[in-house]
Design goal:
Blueprint: H1 3-20, H2 23-34, H3 50-66, H4 72-95, H5 101-134, H6 139-159, H7 161-190
Helix pairs in contact: 1-2, 1-4, 1-5, 1-6, 1-7, 2-3, 2-6, 4-5, 5-6, 5-7, 6-7
Length: 193
């Protein structure tokens, strides 16, 4: 696979991770770039600075903890959905090195931002249904799965971007299946007997 194609796949895989958690994948990208394990596009060199590492560490920790607080988790989903689109676009564009600008920004916005938005949207709907069906008791399970998904997707994207894309597709498929089951279960519990 040519280098520019690999960097596009890397960007899309990292964007999918931002759909699970907005700041954690950006923190991992920042840490990898700061330690010299990841090359960034020169316009995103700020991500490899100590200031960015500190800011993203605090944001990632706050975001992770907030998803374990009842009611705050649902509010956070409302804010995270549009934010995931922006974060997915940024992280995609940051790692797309040596890609012509038109191709880079088209891929970053449509594929990167799009998959981040889709991933966040699906997990947000899962949490909303979980809140209704379990009174919020199932939400920590979803928060933990999202955290694990963000970590796994981010590190796998850095090691094997193509495998990360495949994993993103499988995780989205599983989430959509679970969401359909929850919707059916919710509809059957409200149907007249």
């Amino acid at each position: 696979m040519p280098d520019f194609a690999l960097s596009i796949v890397l960007g899309i895989a990292l964007a999918a991770a931002t759909g699970f958690r907005v700041f954690l994948p950006m923190l991992i990208v920042s840490g990898a770039a700061y330690t010299g394990h990841l090359s960034l596009d020169e316009t995103f060199a700020w991500l490899a600075t100590p200031s960015a590492l500190t800011m993203l560490s605090v944001a990632a920790l706050a975001e992770t903890l907030a998803y374990y607080i009842p009611a705050v988790d649902n509010l956070l989903d409302a804010l995270a959905t549009p934010t995931a689109l922006v974060a997915g676009t940024i992280v995609s564009a940051a790692v797309m090195t040596d890609v012509p600008p038109m191709l880079k920004w088209t891929a970053a916005v449509i594929a990167g931002g799009g998959i981040a938005f889709l991933t966040q949207g699906v997990t947000g709907m899962l949490r909303a249904h979980s809140t209704v069906l379990t009174g919020g008791l199932g939400n920590p399970i979803i928060a933990t799965a999202e955290l694990g998904g963000a970590l796994l997707m981010s590190f796998l994207a850095l090691a094997a971007p193509t495998a990360a894309i495949a994993l993103a597709i499988v995780l989205l498929w599983l989430a959509i299946r679970l969401l359909r089951q929850l919707i059916r279960r919710g509809n059957s519990s409200y149907s007249p007997k």
